[in-house]
Amino acid sequence: MGAAVGQKGAFNDINMTPLIDIVLVVLIIMMVNIPIQIEEMSLKLPSPNPPPQPVSEEHPDQLVIAMYEDGRVALNRAVSSEQNMLYEMTRRLRSMGKKDVFIDAASTIPYGKVVDMVDLARNAGAANVGLAKMKPEGPLPPTSVTEGSGMPRGIFIGSPLVRGEMTEKRADDAIQPLKAALTQCFLTSLSGHPGLTGSHTVYLEVGPNGEIGSETVTYLKAPYVEKDEVGDAALKDCVEQTMKAIKFPELGEGNTAWVRYPLLYSPG
Length: 268
Prior knowledge:
Elements: E1 2-3, E2 10-11, H1 17-33, E3 63-67, E4 73-75, E5 78-79, H2 82-93, E6 100-105, H3 111-123, E7 128-131, E8 144-145, E9 154-157, E10 161-164, H4 168-175, H5 179-192, E11 198-206, E12 224-228, H6 233-243, E13 257-266
Parallel strand pairs: 3-6, 5-8, 6-7
Antiparallel strand pairs: 1-2, 3-4, 4-5, 9-13, 10-13, 11-12, 11-13
């Protein structure tokens, strides 16, 4: 305490100035005595002269459709017809983990034709279809030509496309017992129309107990040919009737799924 100037008696305010000065001096001393710590981080920089990497133009586990200015199309640089390309893609996609297809088109190709090729890849069972970056020089030139359809006489079932509580293997296991009946549908139509060829995409929905659309399960769609690239009404009807006999395992309460099956036909 101290006395106020010009007044009698004492006052109760504490003079904080000396205390603040002491705190500042102590703070400065502490700052000076703290060692400077440098955090070190290891960093590996690339060599300024990296060794050349081998460039491979062939990717056996990747499917690339090339569309050239002169109208030719090629799968992995092998020129072929669209029918043969459909079969080759369908066959190869069955054994591929990632079912991706890329389209590399010349800059002069009409957009509509590129869309048609996207649909072709989808029909073959591609889960994803991507467009390669357009290059001024166009796609890589072809290295070979594939003659004929390449597919033997009969029917070929491609990789199922599935959504919901269904795996590709379970969907494939379900349709395989029907292959003989589906083949007979095609051979019957083929006998009246030699040279009949093309493809179907069959769509169906699966309920919690493995049931599919029927007269008693009205909330599920019955199997039907979603895309018809054959144009034979009798074959289409036979396929739809045959697919009604398909059997799926139970999916569990409240679970559903849909499946698309690509079916290819060849007269051999």
